[in-house]
Amino acid sequence: MPYQAPLPREYYALMPEIAVSITGIVIMMYDAFAPKGSRRGAGYIALAGLVAAGVSVAYLWNESIPPAFSGMLLTDKLRLFFDAIFILVAGVSVLMAMQPLDDERLPAGEYFTLLMFATVGMLLMGGAGDLAMLFLGLETLSITTYVMAGYRRGDLRCNESALKYFILGSFSTGFLLYGIALTYGATKSTNFLKIQQAIASGQITYEPLLTIGVAMILIGLCFKVATAPFHVWTPDVYEGAPTMVTGFMAAGPKAAAFAIFARVFVQVFSPDVPNAANLAATWTDAVALIAVLSMIVGNVIAIQQTNIKRMLAYSSIAHAGYALVGVLARDWQSVAFYMLTYAVMNLGAFTIVTILARQGDEKTELDDYAGIGFHSMGLSVVLMIFMLSLGGIPLTAGFMGKLVIFKQGWQAGFHEVVIIGVLNSAVSLYYYLRPLVVMFFKERETPYVPPKVTAPFYAALAISVIAVFYLGMFPNRTLNALEMNNASKDAKAPAAALPAGGVR
Amino acid sequence: MDFLKPNLLLLLTLLPTVAAVLLILAQKFAGAGEEGMRRIALGSTVVIFLLSLPLIGWYDDPALTMNLPWIDAIGARFHLGVDGMSLWLVLLTTLTMPIAVLSGWTSVEKRVREYLVFMLLLETGMIGVFVSMDMILFYLFWEVVLVPMYFLIGVWGGERRIYAAVKFFLYTVVGSLLMLAAMISLYFIHGKATGNYTFDIVVLTKALGSSSILTLETQKWLFLAFALAFMIKVPLFPLHTWLPDAHVEAPTAGSVILAAVLLKMGTYGLMRFNLPLFPEASHYYATPIFVLAVIGIVYGALVAMVQPDVKKLVAYSSVSHLGFVVLGIFSFTDKGLEGALYQMLNHGVSTGALFLFIGFIYERRHTRQISEFGGLATPMPVYSTLFVITCLASAGLPLLNGFVGEFLILLGAFFSTQHVAFTAIAATGMILSAVYLLWMLQRVVFGEVTNPKNAKLQDLNTRELVVIAPLIILMVVMGVAPNLFLDRSHKAVEEVRKVVDKTPAAPAPVESQPTHLGATH
After folding, report:
1. pLDDT tens-digit map of B255-272
2. Spatial distance between the Cα atoms of A310 and A231, rounded to a whole number of angstroms
3. What is the mean pLDDT of chain A?
4. Would you tell me how many other CB atoms lie within 10 Å of the CB of residue B214?
5. Residue ranges per domain, chain A?
6. B158 in contact with A, Cβ within 8 Å
7. Are A482 and B73 an interchain contact pair (Cβ–Cβ within 8 Å)?
8. ipTM of the assembly?
9. Interchain pair A479, B70: CB under 8 A
10. Chain A residues with CB inside 8 Å of B150's CB?
């Protein structure tokens, strides 16, 4: 008798989500029963849960699992690679938050619970095979991040940040939802595969309905990834939110939104689908415009910032612009790789900002960094590495990410966009060099007490630094795992199609 | 030897970084003081120099090259190699480093550890640039060089160091990022045409230079993208404005490295990439570049003449001298190209030495204003003698190195297809260089001691003599026996010339062989 799996096979596809959800619940229970003194425990539970999720992703990597739950959940390389990014981001975010939560006497249990459920949201977004699932994941993620952004209840800036994020986030969700509704109206389905079939067979009830629907989805997503001109919320929210939350928001939700970008625009509304050429041409033009705008707006405004969190906020807008080049090239692998590189260097930078900001995020102005280079040498050198990586200097992850994405963009024929992107990288170096100038070249006038760096911070920094150099020098394994569309297969291979089957 | 030969280039590239790590460890765990760290840095740079010497015999040897897979998905390989073109530049780098480390022995007092670490990292980057045979690898080292230099200027520099450091960094980056875009474009054009997707410099040069894969229109764009990066680095007029700032603000060792090696990265790039990859475009743009080079030669010399600051004077003289190099490269003749290559070395040796001499008096007087000096020959006879020799070498006095390079370049430019007027105007640059250098010498070294502060200055000490001696010896050797150097690069230069200038070289008259200047006959 063949071995009977205890659960239907589809549940295996859900393992990472299940692991993280259970972790979230366990942390809540732990928090209710554990003695109040030990706040760290919740963090360690979260880390253990994330490791379990990571293991299940690794297990799924080599399995071929058909779309599960009536095509709601797709399991392919796109999902799993992004899942790995989400788990990494969540893990570093946990490490980054342990000490500040302790110092500021903020409730740790709730924080890590929220973080876990946010991660579940991201994981669902990565695997979404249906517009409904996509929305479910996005909302789970958004609602938890709204709360996290306002986690410092007594802090006015923090409240402002949360409220702004909530209002504009809901607004953008409205766009997305309306877009989903219109798309459903046009194609009579929310399932990606069925939407594709409907387009291919020409059974669209009313063509403009679909176009408007797709445009709405695009706008909703552009809000989420913070691209110009939908970026205005970003700097205030990033500045006001506790730094550890900002670090998470800049890396996690952005990557999740890009996973959807890759899924919906690269795969579902791909020009390879019969009858979709017009639609694809339309969104391609729009995305190209948004990409260029984001790069320019992000970089130019970042130059004028004097607060490091605001500067990183504008830099994240610019980076969203670079990543969109991969979407344009219809190459999800380069987007995924870019998001990985961006996540590690950004998390690293925000960890340093968290450490240097002290309690209540007091010290986030660039002036606070004056002359610390030779007082807190380790921290400054590490921040320098992240800044150079964000600026795309070779040997670091940032360079490889840009190289891959610009190369794919060039291959797909978006020469002008790539050249604008390349020039923008040069502009961006101006402000990424500023913290270095301030830290190393200026003398400090006020007294400086080096901050205490504890083990979780060391762990977070070690992971980020190693990842930055590993991806920057030896990206081969990672890129091969992605089955990167190597140009030596001359004819441009069609963008990886949706995994088929399982749809009832 | 079995181990050394195939791994030598990797060793040369990595050893400085290893030394930097050792230095940090020695300080952390063995309690090495500043003196100890300086010794480690000096020792390792000397060892690296000695290790690089066998290259003279081994260059071009296929056993020397290292070609390993690196990033398959991008198409980049880890390909290192040395040919006659890069051989001397690698040696120039490895020779300059111990001199630079030794030159800052007493003048750099703050943050010695970081200073030495950045110097060593810089060496890795510079050697990497010259031995990379893969474009992505080349680009990687090219950019990595910026970071340590940025810090050397920014932390240990003079008053306006921040401005100079940022300007240096941004100027170079703007050019090089466009070069990256051009590299990517080359990769796809070559791949589509041949089915072989690669960034390998050797493969690309062979395939693109002598075929019609690239149309003239494409060549023009790509040429400009590459040339912009290199010409900023050279720097060619009017892209030179970062150079005086960087030179003046940099500490002595930084200036020496900047002048001796970093600027050569630009001219090396022109010879390695622009000419062999885009021969038609090179011809198309030769005249405008000739014009810029000639303007650079004359303008640099004229501006140098009126500088009140010795360091600025030498900085502008670099603009002038590098103009000669570019002139030689775009003459597309064997003589011009060889002269250009030789002049790169000459400039490295003599301008490096000039910056050292400026450093010596700056350490004594903490000023570089020409008006503050005068009559240094009385208190400092040895210094003055050597300084005069170096200035004469830089001005192109026969039997010293500068003459050979400039003469070859002018010959090459004369026999090129460009108008003779360019050569004639460029030749005035040689005269002008004699004017500003001799005039400066007259005001600094000769005459009566007018400023009492100068009366009791100490002459060069042993360390300073050791620093300067190798360069002085080289100036004489390179001036008397240029063939020792030129013979080894002849083949590589001729290969480039053959690609860019398809007309067969006119048979040389028997009396004057093209590359032999008669010095050894």
Report:
1. 889 888 999 999 999 988
2. 12
3. 87
4. 24
5. 9-481
6. no
7. yes
8. 0.87
9. no
10. 433, 436
